[in-house]
Amino acid sequence: DRIPWLCALHDILRREDTSRQDAILACSALKKMYRHVLISGASAIKSNQPEQPGENPALKVLFVHLDGSMDIIAGRLEKRRGHFMPPELLKSQFDTLEPPSAPENFITVSLEKSLPEIVLEIETAILQG
Description:
ATP-binding; kinase; Therm_gnt_kin; gluconokinase; gluconokinase activity; mainly alpha
């Protein structure tokens, strides 16, 4: 049920890339396949392989893995009001998570840092390309 939504997000990223616009997309792409769809679109589902040269090249995406313990994230979830994600689903999110790994383009940022430190680390990674 997530695949059409991920394909729509890919299309938005592709449109922005074609227009030479930078874009920041926030979503919980917990599984490697979800991240593959964000980069390659519907072709990722058909082949489950990287696209071949000359075929609708994949987007260049930097994934930011916000890494923190269940306790830290649970504490933050409890402080949210009116958010769609109930704290009761947190364990299932951790169970589903496939942390990014090579050859994915990603950085891991610790949630133990302050918000300004997190933002600075992400900005620095983006600016370094």
